[in-house]
Amino acid sequence: DARVTQTPRHKVTEMGQEVTMRCQPILGHNTVFWYRQTMMQGLELLAYFRNRAPLDDSGMPKDRFSAEMPDATLATLKIQPSEPRDSAVYFCASGLGQGGQETQYFGPGTRLLVL
Amino acid sequence: DAKTTQPPSMDCAEGRAANLPCNHSTISGNEYVYWYRQIHSQGPQYIIHGLKNNETNEMASLIITEDRKSSTLILPHATLRDTAVYYCIVRGLTNSGYALNFGKGTSLLVTP
Hints:
The structure holds two protein chains of two kinds.
Chain A: E1 5-7, E2 10-13, E3 19-24, E4 31-38, E5 42-50, E6 53-56, E7 65-71, E8 74-79, E9 88-95, E10 105-106, E11 110-114
Parallel strand pairs in A: 2-11
Antiparallel strand pairs in A: 1-3, 3-8, 4-5, 4-9, 5-6, 7-8, 9-10, 9-11
Chain B: E1 9-13, E2 18-23, E3 31-38, E4 45-50, E5 55-56, E6 61-64, E7 70-75, E8 84-92, E9 106-111
Parallel strand pairs in B: 1-9
Antiparallel strand pairs in B: 2-7, 3-4, 3-8, 5-6, 6-7, 8-9
């Protein structure tokens, strides 16, 4: 049963620290999505990659967030420096497609708490 | 993407069919109807999608009306593990952006 995996599942850190979240997309999928979920805002798209290239990161605060795909099996989302308002659940999803309309399969999420 | 309207909450007895409605009266011809659900503390889970024909898979059935202005997701034999928020999402082939617009969904409670 192919699944998206994310690590760590939980992270507690102090304001100002760097946070790195990792995602392993489903083998063979060529698209990766990063979402953030909060009670107030719901699910927000942060970044979208296709064939490891970033196509849309307009939802990401550029000054502190960065997203990369070092290879086809790993996507990373970094926050540096972290702030309390970054506390949220971060989901990675993967899919197979070309037009951006592919079915998205989500991972279990990383619960981040910044104190 | 077309706007969708779902009831905020529904109850269903365990073992019975759960029928979750969705209105999407402004849907256009090239837009698909997708259903996802999110069980508490888990990531959203894809259930099913369709364009105009009814669809069935191992999880559920999707019934789309002939005019495509509404649809119903059917969980044939609901279990306690089906308690979740169910999202109906209408999504086109172009100009829809990459983000899934989950909206508020329907909170389904399956009771013993």
